[in-house]
Amino acid sequence: MGYPMAGYLAANGHRVQVYNRTASRAEQWVSEHHGKHFSSPALASENCDVVFCCVGNDDDLRSVTLGEAGAFAGMRTGSVFVDHTTTSASVARELADFAAELGVDYIDAPVSGGQAGAENGQLTVMIGGKPEAVERVAPLIECYARMQARLGGVGSGQLTKMVNQICIAGAVQGLAEALHFAGNAGLDSKAVIEVISKGAAQSWQMDNRASTMIDDRFDFGFAVDWMRKDLGYVLEEARKNGSHLPVTALVDQFYSEVQALGGGRWDTSSLLVPLNRLGKK
Length: 281
Known about the structure:
CATH superfamily of the largest domain: NAD(P)-binding Rossmann-like Domain
Largest sheet: 3 strands, parallel
Mean pLDDT: 97
Low-confidence stretches: none
CATH topology of the largest domain: Rossmann fold
Number of domains: 2
Order of helices and strands: HEHEHEHHEHEEHEHEHHHHHH
Helix content: 55-70%
Distance between the termini: 39 Å
Strand content: 5-15%
Number of helices: 14
Shape: elongated
CATH class of the largest domain: Alpha Beta
């Protein structure tokens, strides 16, 4: 997702230096968007006012920020680090404390909208950080976002993304069960969706995933493996703050069933697959 996001920054006239753990991706980006690519996060971060990051999880984030080759080692006092990775809130606070010792402002800014949102510059960005730092980077984030909002101090962006994933998990499971029921009832599922999508049952998942679910197509979109990673952060945080999330925990188990079927890279809408297989027994 960072590939098109960086592209929008370059297209809006900003000088962009890039690093990717797969060097060929950085080389490809430079061939398309110009700019420069470097062999380490530290080198890519030198002489930059703002450094953006988008990797996979807590461990990935630590690996590209800490140590002699990490981004923090190359950043100058007064610069801002913006993390678009979906991580735990605890690692955001941990790294913010580390950055503060270096005179660097840290912002956690996970996104929603998926690959399509990144490619179309239509992401929603949930932000945690100091108001002045957030205000400073807002014009840059605007290059690839349709919505951005500060929700509080560092960690607030990640907590808000957890709320987002709780909502998605329940919505996708509900849609999967509805389509499973419609099929078993002998209904024309596409006709049913066309009708109910104009009423109170309408959702982004219904508008964007119902037709592909009906056609049994899941080789695209936001991977089940990544959703389980995100829900792991949700459930860990829930244990800390005393939240009771029975539906979220159950959907996480259903996603483990999808993984067991070899669907770790399938789209999250693949929750329909185990339901339909169970129904055929």
